[in-house]
Structures are given as structure tokens and as C-alpha cells.
């Protein structure tokens, strides 16, 4: 371990403040189930924006590292690790797969301790739990591979596992960022119809059309409810997926769906922002449920999606619209906030 020395990382030191770029020192040795990975690329998910903003309340682990989707190469393995080996290319993901869930690592920043979870990717090197890694073929495209850590698996899993969209059913995807665009793609591959993408940024809506949306709506320019009803005509809305975590949008989706409709919540409201719904329809077939990463099973789903990409049936490269260095990660985060980044952006280590 000592031979790997220090590495650069983006550290969350204070909520609602820019990340701090600094050099950290690795732990002296790997514990049971821990794997040292050299990160090649990291994605940025809306979940990290929520962590920075304190969406779930005060953060008792500060300072700590962030990031939960990435690609890299295994540099070393700790005791008990069986599912990956030194030299393997891997996808880093936050949903647990097979293997050991190891103790979370702690890094040194001068005299300070920097915390980390079972996976972090906003860093040049990471000590990761074995069960947050899935081995991929040596000829894999490392630029698109991070999308399989969250954006693709969450997007597809939400449509297929949570919403259980069937051929010809209607669907609204509210929020067409990196995860939402993959929901649109999954709905198109499932032959949902119509597939309605809603966002406030035209760039994202243009990408949604490329991914298979039949209709797009800019929520800042038109009456969303009226437009959805116009598109559907006499048809009930079957599925509404919310990626925003805004209570008023969740309530809107619940009202728009038909008696047997499914409302799936991916975005998480800020702590204390409760939703208000009339619950009687739940007794007669309407469903409202939360998604936990699309209930993805990483070691099963990631290889399937990699094969689809290799055969040209899954579009991933089109979703990567910007690449930044780790030094510029705060610029990337701001670009996500203001809509300048339409698809998924990558951090290249």
C-alpha cells in the first residue's frame, strides 16, 4: 500500500459549499474485503448534489469523499476478496453485489481524518468494498462504463423492476437528467407509448428525443398537466416517474395517473418536505412506491447491459456530453445545477 503514496480527491468539507481539492494519504493496509482501485472515470449523479446541499439534513460524517459511479482498475486486494483480482477492470456501483461489505476506509489529510463510505469515486484512488465492484471485460470502454454504476442501472431498473412497464403503456418521466434519459431509453426499448419526458432545460429534452421519447414538455413554458392530458386523449396515464424529489410534482403525478397507475419516486424530497395525497385510490389498485436504485442486481444487470452496448442496442456514448478534470469538478457540478450539461458528465482522473 505504501508504494501508492498520496492521491488527489474532491472533499466535502462543509455542506452547501464547493468541494475542496486536496491530496490525501491511503490507509497503511487493506482490511478484510477492501479493494484498492485506481479510478479512471467518475460520473456525477444528482444524489451527490443532494449530499452537498444537505437534502437529508445535517451531515455527521464531514469531512468525507463523494461519488458512487465510476470505472477503474484493481491495484490490490485485501484478505478474503474473491470476486475481483489485481489488474481487473471494474465498474464501481453503490448498489451492493456479491462479496464482502468491508469496513469503510479512513484517509489522512495532514492531521485530519477524511471519512468515506463503501464506495467513493471523486478521487484518483479509492479503497472500496468488494461488493461495490463488478468485473468487466478487459476490452471494455472505460468512458461509458461509469454509467453502468448508476445512471443506466437505476434508469432501466426503475422502469423494468419498479414500474414494470408493459408494451404499449404510457409513461411520464419527470426530470430528464442522466438517470431520466436512461428511463426514457428503457421505456423505448420496452415499447412503451407514449413516452413523455418533462424537464426545464431544452438541451435535456432534445437528448430525450434521441433516446426514444415520443413527446417532450418544457415545464417552464407550458401547462404540464394540460399538455399531458392532451397527448393522452382518453387514455389513462399508466406510469409516472419522478426524479425531482419535489412534493408538488409527486402529488401531480399521483393525480395524473389512472386508477391502476403506478407512481415511482426516484428523487428524494428534502427532509421535512412531506407529500399530501388522497389515499383511497391505493385500496383499489393505484400504487405509489419508492425506488432504491431500480432494485438493480449489479453482477447480473451490468454484464447484460455491457453486452447490449457491445451489440449496438444500448446507447451510452450519446449520453456523455461533457468531460472535466478533477480540478474542475466544481465547475461540472455547477453545470449540472444550471442545466448547461444536458446528459451525464464525466470526471477524468
Give a verbal description of the structure:
- The chain is α/β, with parallel strands linked by helices and 349 residues long.
- It folds into 2 domains: 2-144 and 316-348, Medium-chain alcohol dehydrogenases, catalytic domain (Quinone Oxidoreductase, Chain A, domain 1), CATH 3.90.180.10; 151-295, 3-Layer(aba) Sandwich (Rossmann fold), CATH 3.40.50.
- The protein has 8 helices and 18 strands.
- The strands form 4 sheets. Strands 3, 5, 6, 9, 10, 17 and 18 form a 7-stranded mixed beta sheet that branches. A 6-stranded parallel beta sheet has the order 13-12-11-14-15-16, with helices on both faces.
- β1 and β2 form a beta hairpin.
- α2 (151-162) packs across α3.
- The protein is globular, with a radius of gyration of 20 Å.
- This is Dehydrogenase.
- Residues 14-347 form the Enoyl reductase (ER) domain.
- Keywords: Metal-binding, Oxidoreductase, Zinc.
Report the uncertain regions.
Answer: none
What distance separates the N and C termini? 20 Å
CATH architecture group name of the largest domain: Alpha-Beta Complex
Q: Bin the helical content.
A: 10-25%
Give the CATH class of the largest domain.
Alpha Beta
Secondary-structure class: alpha/beta
Number of domains: 2
Family: Belongs to the zinc-containing alcohol dehydrogenase family.
Cofactor: Zn(2+)
Pfam families: ADH_N, ADH_zinc_N
Domain Enoyl reductase (ER): 14-347
Amino acid at each position: 500500500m505504501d508504494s501508492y503514496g498520496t492521491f488527489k480527491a474532491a472533499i466535502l468539507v462543509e455542506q452547501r459549499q464547493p468541494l475542496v481539492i486536496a491530496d490525501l494519504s491511503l490507509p497503511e493496509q487493506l482490511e478484510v474485503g477492501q479493494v484498492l482501485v485506481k479510478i479512471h472515470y467518475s460520473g456525477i449523479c444528482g444524489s451527490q448534489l443532494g449530499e452537498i446541499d444537505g437534502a437529508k439534513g445535517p451531515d455527521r460524517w464531514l469531512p468525507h469523499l463523494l461519488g458512487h459511479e465510476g470505472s477503474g482498475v484493481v491495484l490490490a486486494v485485501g484478505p478474503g476478496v474473491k470476486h475481483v483480482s489485481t489488474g481487473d477492470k471494474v465498474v464501481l456501483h453503490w448498489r451492493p453485489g456479491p462479496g464482502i461489505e468491508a469496513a469503510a476506509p479512513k484517509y489522512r489529510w495532514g492531521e485530519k481524518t477524511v471519512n468515506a463510505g463503501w464506495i467513493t469515486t471523486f478521487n484518483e484512488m479509492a479503497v472500496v468494498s468488494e461488493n461495490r465492484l463488478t468485473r468487466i471485460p478487459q476490452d471494455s470502454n472505460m468512458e461509458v462504463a461509469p454509467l453502468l454504476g448508476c445512471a443506466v442501472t437505476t434508469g432501466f431498473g426503475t422502469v423494468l423492476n419498479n414500474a414494470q412497464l408493459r408494451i404499449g403503456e404510457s409513461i411520464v418521466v419527470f426530470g430528464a437528467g442522466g438517470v431520466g434519459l436512461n428511463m426514457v431509453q428503457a421505456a423505448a426499448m420496452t415499447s412503451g407509448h407514449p413516452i413523455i419526458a418533462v424537464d426545464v432545460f431544452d438541451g435535456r429534452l432534445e437528448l430525450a428525443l434521441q433516446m426514444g421519447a415520443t413527446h417532450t414538455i418544457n415545464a417552464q413554458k407550458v401547462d404540464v398537466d394540460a399538455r399531458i392530458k392532451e397527448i393522452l386523449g382518453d387514455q389513462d396515464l399508466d406510469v409516472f416517474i419522478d426524479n425531482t424529489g419535489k412534493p408538488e410534482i409527486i402529488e401531480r403525478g399521483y393525480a395524473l395517473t389512472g386508477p391502476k397507475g403506478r407512481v415511482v419516486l426516484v428523487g428524494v424530497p428534502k427532509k421535512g418536505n412531506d407529500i399530501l395525497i388522497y389515499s383511497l385510490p391505493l385500496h383499489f389498485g393505484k400504487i405509489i412506491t419508492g425506488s432504491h436504485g431500480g432494485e438493480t442486481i449489479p453482477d447480473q444487470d451490468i454484464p447484460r447491459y455491457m453486452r447490449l452496448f457491445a451489440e449496438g442496442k444500448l446507447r451510452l456514448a450519446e449520453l456523455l456530453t461533457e468531460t472535466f478534470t478533477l480540478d474542475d469538478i466544481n465547475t461540472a457540478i455547477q453545470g449540472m445545477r444550471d442545466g448547461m450539461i444536458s446528459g451525464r458528465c464525466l470526471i477524468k482522473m
